[in-house]
Amino acid sequence: MSSPTAPAVAPATPSTRDVAIEAVDLVKRFGDFTAVDGVSFTVPQGSVLGLLGPNGAGKTTTVRMMTTLSPPTSGTARVAGYDVIEQPDMVRRSMGLTGQAATVDEILTGRENLRMIGGLYGIGRKDLTRRSEQLLEQFSLSDAGDKQVKSYSGGMRRRLDLAVSLLAAPPVLFLDEPTTGLDPRSRTELWDVLRDLVREGTTLLLTTQYLEEADHLADKIVVIDKGAIIAEGTSLQLKEQAGAASLVLTVSDPADIPAAEALLRKTGGEVFIDEGARKLTTAADGLADLTRVVGWFDESGIAVDDLGLARPSLDDVFLSLTGHRAEDETSTEEEQNA
Ligand SMILES: Nc1ncnc2c1ncn2[C@@H]1O[C@H](COP(=O)(O)OP(=O)(O)OP(=O)(O)O)[C@@H](O)[C@H]1O
Ligand SMILES: [Mg+2]
């Protein structure tokens, strides 16, 4: 355990061989404020867990405890079978972490950043050169490798961050909001890279505020709010809990709202009305419902500006699970963020 060079890491106990990451009743208090309130979950080897929640939910605090950066107030976590409290060195050798804020040095080039961090890991010169070039290639940074990081786009920085955290080829990777702030193209590019890693056997825990991201990447999603798990399951299961899809209709003339409401009621569900936006919403089973509704409105002669199916957003999941919208968070609590 005190050996300075990183050995190939084997799981600590046979019973935990198939579980790569485990949170065991994690609690974190800051003074009398409880940021994480008894969080438990397991992540099987080679799978992806998405930790989904709004600002201030406790995602970063959970990741910090699981990556030995912050001691739990109570509870513990195991990474590759090693306990974060009892065996922090072994945990660190088994994992990579890409934090929420970029950790790479702006003044250095991409290549220099990889060399520097690799040097800190104690990777030999020849191996380090080979590994650095391989990662730059994998993350489409070969050409930009000799440019200073301060000239990189947000997407390039995130990719370099990820490359740096993969230098030691860790079997377990923690990513804290890897795509926040990225444009849609950079985001899907990064998703591709992450999927490749998982295909090669890496276990991934990623935090995100986007259901769509968890949807694309995660085998299982754990939703946290105010430090506690409020739901878990596959993305499909969560969406079903949130009420599948909804049908959203905008009438051209506000005077038609009552008539439109009467028509939509024929679907059998409750109709929500936003008068100002001339918008009516109701639960829908899918395209079949949409087609029926289009027919009714055609016959009725009510002019419609817009009609479509909306998939549930993280917001809808929250609303259905907690009865409050994700963005209400800061207004209902004292400002926690300094
Ligand atoms: N060192 C600290 N001292 C006091 N409070 C803290 C500290 N770190 C985090 N908190 C509080 O704990 C709560 C959870 O914070 P955390 O950073 O884990 O949320 P998050 O889910 O990562 O949010 P975001 O999506 O904004 O990154 C917040 O209310 C935050 O203000
Ligand atoms: Mg965070």
Q: Care to give the gist of this entry?
A:
The protein is of the alpha/beta class.
Verbal overview:
- The N terminus and C terminus are likely disordered.
- Helix 3 crosses helix 4.
- The protein has twelve helices and 14 strands.
- The protein is 35% helix and 26% strand.
- By secondary structure, it is of the alpha/beta class.
- Among the domains are: 159 residues, Rossmann fold (3-Layer(aba) Sandwich); 68 residues, 2-Layer Sandwich (Alpha-Beta Plaits).
- The longest helix has 16 residues.
- Bound molecules: adenosine-5'-triphosphate and magnesium ion.
The largest sheet has its strands arranged as 6-7-8-3-9-10
| CATH homology superfamily of the domain at 16-94 and 170-239 and 327-336 | P-loop containing nucleotide triphosphate hydrolases
Counting helices, strands and paired strands, the structural category is: alpha/beta
Helix/strand order, N-terminal first: EEEHEEHEHHHEHEHEEHEHEEHEHH
Small molecules held by this entry: adenosine-5'-triphosphate, magnesium ion
The radius of gyration is: 24 Å
Number of strands: 14
